């Protein structure tokens, strides 16, 4: 490359679009074909509630213990069914003229204001969505083309299926596209700088910079920290570090030696369940936007749930693999401070950035390999999913 070439390059505005990842680029309102957590189980009662997911309006209602999800639009005149009520067991009646739908299959079973022999019955229906309850939340599957939902356990983080744990969490409605939220979650560069002022990190120094490699294992990609630098001299500018006298010093290690459990240095003790996972890196992400951060004593998850192109729901969950009396200590700790400092103020810094991110165009730098790897994973996983939906008999691509 000539000098002139390299100058032109460095002046180039960067990526003008996301055409490298066409499915990802098109998924502004979310990827259909996945399960999403939408609200706490305790919030879904016999009174219908309207939500929005992947751009779809959905009504949730609990009937005799089971949660049902239907398209939140009456086919008669388009009134939201979430304004209606359950007149008969197993049904939901529209608030306007009393069209009454079977909660299980969405069929119109009565039109109250046209009498018991109304000929419209059986001639209209609303779409229903598969529903599951896990982690104290209601999960809804958004189909691509009316396909059956795969078992939700195949999509949950593996360590949360069949292992006892306690959890605390927070669900917030936020502005900004879900992809910015997910990219922010897995973003290699920002935590060290943006979060240096957070109360959650008040007593713990963060590295100045890392050398990172992305590794895939199964359906997750991991950020493996190869080198970790706590301070750095910037030629002609000076030294920059996040170390302060009041912050715990990172454990003594050779300069550059990295920890891959938590991002504030190596730990003396690691929870046996977490240790047994043998995660290649402390931050990992999988479709359809699930972030997992492994710390020595707990795992933090973030689910970025697409509401529509400009809004997402942030679901932050902290899990401890505890049973019995120890769980009381967890709840005290979680409600006492973790919920406010970590899921509140710390995560609020992310919400702030996600709201103001505006890309593409963008000009990426070395740590952004985390972003391009995630987009690549999404593209590959979704391509395989589309093929499976179009041709359900074909063998599944294990690696996707
Ligand atoms: S609009 Fe729903 S019954 Fe008329
Ligand atoms: Fe962050």
TrEMBL record:
- Quote the InterPro entries the UniProt record gives: Cholesterol_7-desaturase, Homotrim_ring_OHase_catalytic, Rieske_2Fe-2S, Rieske_2Fe-2S_sf
Can you tell which superkingdom this protein's organism belongs to? Bacteria
Pfam families xrefs: Aromatic_hydrox, Rieske
- Domain Rieske positions: 35-140
Does the record bear GTP-binding in its keywords? no
Keywords annotated in UniProt: 2Fe-2S, Iron, Iron-sulfur, Metal-binding, Oxidoreductase
Coiled-coil features, chain-numbered ranges: none
Q: What is this protein called?
A: Rieske 2Fe-2S domain-containing protein
- Species for this entry: Actinomadura parmotrematis
């Amino acid at each position: 490359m000539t000098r002139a070439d390299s100058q032109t390059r460095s002046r180039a505005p960067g990526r003008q679009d996301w055409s490298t990842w066409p499915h990802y680029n098109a998924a502004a309102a979310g990827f259909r074909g996945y399960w999403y957590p939408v609200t706490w189980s305790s919030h879904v009662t016999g009174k219908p509630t309207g939500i929005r997911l992947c751009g779809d309006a959905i009504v949730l209602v609990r009937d005799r213990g089971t949660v049902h999800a239907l398209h939140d639009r009456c086919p008669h005149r388009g009134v939201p069914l979430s304004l209606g009520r359950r007149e008969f067991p197993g049904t939901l009646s529209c608030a306007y003229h009393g069209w009454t739908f079977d909660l299980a299959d969405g069929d119109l079973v009565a039109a109250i204001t046209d009498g018991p022999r109304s000929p419209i019955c059986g001639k209209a229906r609303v779409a229903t969505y598969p529903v599951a309850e896990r982690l104290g939340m209601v999960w809804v599957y958004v189909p691509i083309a009316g396909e059956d939902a795969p078992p939700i356990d195949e999509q949950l983080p593996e360590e949360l299926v069949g292992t006892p744990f306690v959890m605390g969490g927070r669900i917030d409605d936020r502005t900004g596209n879900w992809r910015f939220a997910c990219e922010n979650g897995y973003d290699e560069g920002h935590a060290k700088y943006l979060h240096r002022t957070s109360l959650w990190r008040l007593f713990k120094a963060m590295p100045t910079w890392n050398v990172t490699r992305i590794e895939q294992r199964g359906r997750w990609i991991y950020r493996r920290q190869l080198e970790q630098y706590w301070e750095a001299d910037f030629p002609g500018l000076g030294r920059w570090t996040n170390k302060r006298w009041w912050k715990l010093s990172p454990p003594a290690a050779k300069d550059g030696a990295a920890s891959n459990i938590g991002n504030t240095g190596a730990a003396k003790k690691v929870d046996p369940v977490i240790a047994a996972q043998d995660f290649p890196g402390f931050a990992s992400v999988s479709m359809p936007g699930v972030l997992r951060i492994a710390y020595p004593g707990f795992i933090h998850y973030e689910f970025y749930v697409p509401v529509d192109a400009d809004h997402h729901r942030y679901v932050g969950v902290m899990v401890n693999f505890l049973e019995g009396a120890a769980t009381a200590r967890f709840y005290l700790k979680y409600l006492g401070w973790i919920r406010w400092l970590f899921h509140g103020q710390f995560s609020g810094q992310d919400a702030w950035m996600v709201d103001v991110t505006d890309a593409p165009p963008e000009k990426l730098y070395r740590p952004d390999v985390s972003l391009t790897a995630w987009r690549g994973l999404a593209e590959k996983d979704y391509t395989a999913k589309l093929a499976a939906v179009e041709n359900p008999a074909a063998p599944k691509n294990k690696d996707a």
